[in-house]
Amino acid sequence: MTETTPSGNSRRRFLNWFLGTAAGALTVAVLYPVLRFVSPPEVPEASTNQVEAGPTNDAELLEKGFKIVRFGADPVILVRLSETEYRAFAGTCTHLDCIVEFQKDKQRIWCNCHNGEYNLHGQVVAGPPPKPLEPFKVDLVFKGSGQPQTIVVSRA
Amino acid sequence: MKNLARNVRAWFDDRLPVAEAQEFAAHKTVPAHRLSVFYYLGGMTMFFFVIQVVTGIMLMLYYRPSAEEAFESVEFIMTVVPFGWLIRSLHSWSANLMVFFAFVHLATVYFTKSYRKPREMTWVTGCLLLFLAMAFGFSGYLLPWNQLAFFATKVGTDIAGAVPIVGEWALRFLRGGDRVTGGTLSRFYGWHVAILPAITTVLLGIHLMLVQIQGMSVPPKQQEEADGKRPMKFFPDFAMRDLWGWILALGVLAAIAALLPWELGEKADPFAPAFKDIRPEWYFMFMFETLKLVPGGEIAGIEYEAIPILLFSLGGLLMMLVPFLDGKVNRTGRSPAFTFIGILALVYIVGMTAWGYRSLTPLFIVVGTGALMLLLGLATRHDAGPVEGQIEGRKS
Questions:
Q1: pTM above 0.90, yes or no
Q2: How buried is residue B316: exposed, middle or buried, by Cβ count under 10 Å (0-12/13-18/19+)?
């Protein structure tokens, strides 16, 4: 059974090489589409540069001092400091992606997941967040006399 | 009737080695010593796994895996479907008890050094099964699509994203995109009901087969005691005790599920702040608490938060490789260094978990199962010695 002739040996080697290569190619041909399939495709999103965040007399905003605004697919936190002063930051904690809140009594931005604390400039004061919150620009737009102004949040 | 039974038996006898299997079962024994009670822990874990399979399949009949319908369908199960509240509560509680018993099983196997030669593969498959149980827990947690689940999943997947090099791909792979959305839910559902069960079935099969082939390990310190006692016959003595434990466990489980029905909470809202008490399942608590302690910053391009994650992963890997690292136990039957490391890990995990729950009380689980173990322990202790009238020859 054993192949002793030189030609037989090289034939065996060739067949082994051929079989191995074919098996390898088959594996790659099967695995590649599978891997590509399970990696989610990049879906293009309309880029958002500006959103309207409602009137200045928004009940939620007046009561809690903040609200989460939909900025495209991302949350932005809008904080009301006074009648005329508003600030907005990316609403996602830089630590592990939770959504932050504004605590009126303590005058701070706070993440409940891992006790991350930011000041009213979005800078990290305490806790695990590695980076400050990205700031957004807030403008008040006059909508006619007697009407409350509209808050507009845009990329800084 | 008797004839029919005999004919059926004969039919199978002609085709399968039924007699051999019967012979094997009749001679199967379990070593008797004062730690024999540990031998029930694996079976107990498996019992809860079976409950999971049964209740899980039942829940699948009504559950709908989409962001628009998931929460509502669970609500429907809990409020409209007859006994729906009970089935879902059983599924959630049994999941927790299963993981709890898997942990206890692992701890007892570890500290009695049962991973030593020739049972390395049993240990490795057991570790993999524990990781699978945790993956089941993590993926199942999201399915009701409530606030708690939504944020726990955001955090959990973001943690994967912090791992250097492969992190970004892993995060998108887990989430099915950049964010936690309905796409994530579909994916987690697929893992939870198809991929993980398939892998688990194969691994559990290997794990059980190894236990059957190699039998129970006697801890080195109990070897002398076990040598001096007649081993317990598996059928019917051990099996009946197993069964008794399972019936008791079913009773405890049903009582907890009925008296403390699992909450549903509020529907997930991707535009609401995370509320207080955002927490993962209790068995992830020690890692969660650790992450709270790590300050922000980065070193050599690696964020600090990635460091504990890498260390935990390394810890898991080392745990799996323990039989290959602990060479001493095979030579001398002792390895105090590994016992010491095990105690340190246990103290850390239990300590951090307790710290995470300083305000809550999952003590029900601990106390309840502790009582259960005690009862099982008493049962075994009583009958472990030689029993009159058993024909099994004494081995010395």
A1: no
A2: middle
Cβ within 8 Å, pair A128-B275: no
Q: Closest CB to A75: pick one of B155, B271, B297.
A: B271
- A17 CA to chain B: closest CA distance, Å? 32
Tens digits of residue pLDDT in A29-76: 889 988 888 888 887 777 888 888 888 888 888 888 999 999 988 899
ipTM of the complex: 0.70
pLDDT for B151-160, tens place per residue?
999 988 988 8
pLDDT at A8: 64
Nearest of A85, A91, A86, A128 to residue A109 by alpha carbon: A91
Q: Are B320 and B124 in contact (CB under 8 A)?
A: yes
User: Would you state the structure tokens that stand for residue A99, as one six-digit string?
Assistant: 């959504």
Tell me the sheet residues that pair with B299.
Answer: B302
Q: Where are the alpha helices (DSSP H) in chain B?
A: 2-15, 18-27, 41-60, 70-79, 84-111, 120-142, 147-161, 167-175, 182-190, 196-214, 223-227, 239-259, 285-293, 306-325, 328-332, 336-356, 363-383
